[in-house]
Amino acid sequence: MGIFGRKRRTEGGSGGRHGAPEADDTIEDDAYDEDDELSDVSDGPFDVADFEDDGVPRIDLGSVKVPVPDGSQVQVEMDPETGGVRAVHVVTEQGQITVSAYAAPRSGGLWREVSTELAEQLRADGAKVNIGRGVWGLEISAIVGDVSLRFVGVDRPRWMLRGVIAGPQSEAAAAVEVLRGIVRRTIVDRGDAPMPVRTPLTITLPEAVAEHIAAQQQQG
User: How confident is the model over 119-175, as pLDDT tens digits?
Assistant: First the structure.
């Protein structure tokens, strides 16, 4: 599963069936399809209530259970102000992958809102942004300095999953397939409690990982 380490916040993240999305720097209505609102649930990612064990090794983070490819590492990003977990990253040869789940409407559609805002923010930060259609609908790719980013989003009833990979531009073509593979095999446990839309689902660490981080903190 790799080495569990502690990682401070880093800038970047990630988000076409083949290579880069079709070039565009705006998100038009025709970039969406009505079927994108709630994509096909027969393919992953999966809701925990509908998932049958497939034997794939995953790290259990409470709200998400994320596959960890062979040869990759898991890095935990702590929030220095609260002492809680800010994010968990899977670091592969192609780049750093972060998968996050959020509370969403039963009808879906949250990724459309979020992706529009995300593209606008990236452009405001000076990134070169491309918009295209991928496996689950809209995908965003961006270049910030020497870093290539790809973002994907998946709408399901009551939750949305966002995946992002950040890595060198030389690995961009391979990175998107690595990202999609991890997102496709991720399991989401939304829980039954009511939550405002866009609320991040809580990340909890496996006991062994939490103990490892606590030991690191004690060592300074």
Answer: 999 999 999 999 999 999 999 999 999 999 999 999 999 999 999 999 999 999 999
Q: How far is CA 131 from CA 25, 127, 145, in A?
A: 6, 13, 18
Other Cβ atoms less than 10 A from the Cβ of 199: the count is: 13
Give me the residue label for tokens 């991040």. 200
CA distances to 25, 67, 77, 84, 161 from 188, rounded to whole Å, are: 31, 12, 20, 20, 8
Among the listed residues 64, 6, 70, the one whose alpha carbon sits nearest the alpha carbon of residue 211: 6
Question: What 8-state DSSP symbol labels residue 49?
Answer: G
Rounded Cα–Cα distance for residues 164 and 141 (Å): 10
Helix (H) or strand (E) holding 164: strand 159-168
Burial environment of residue 82 by CB neighbours within 10 A (0 to 12, 13 to 18, 19 or more):
exposed
Q: Are strands 4-7 and 46-47 parallel, antiparallel or unpaired?
A: unpaired
- As a 3-state breakdown, the chain gives helix, strand, coil percent values, each rounded to 5, of 25, 35, 40
- Amino acid making up residue 204: T
Q: Which two tokens stand for residue 181?
A: 């593979």
Q: Output the pTM of the full model.
A: 0.81
Residue 145 corresponds to which tokens in the numbers above? 């300095």
- What is the per-residue pLDDT across 81-121, written as a single tens digit (0 to 9) for each? 887 888 999 999 999 999 999 999 999 899 999 999 999 99
Cis peptide before 45 (omega within 30 of 0): yes
Detail the DSSP E strand segments found in 41-107: 46-47, 58-60, 64-67, 73-78, 85-92, 95-103
